[in-house]
Known about the structure:
By secondary structure, the chain is an alpha+beta fold. It is 31% helix and 24% strand.
Amino acid sequence: MKDEELLQAAVVARNFAQAPYSHYLVGAAMLCRNGRIYTGCNVESSSFGLSLCAERVALVKALSEGEREFDRMAVVISGKEIAKPCGACLQLLSDYAPGLILILGNLEGEYERLSISKLLPRPFGRGDLLK
């Protein structure tokens, strides 16, 4: 699957975002190694700490269906800026998909590819818990 196709799946997922407070709509599409795609959108709560990012929704959907091997994830936001996952999303992605390639884009069709390790170079992980 081409990056542009995965980005389009994230654009479609973004249409389902529930962001009544920030109006910041985000869509994500996770491509598993077996070719299956799991999508997610952000879902906000009036208790802001309970809000869910699109990246975490897509990852948790995939994990809850038994997926364990991931290839790429596309993330799309509105506007001219390129999407940037938050620290919580990067941590969870690092825990479950450390070799993941992120395709970060916008609705203008611009995007860039980055590894999790580029965005979170020194993650906290299982090894830190065993020390």
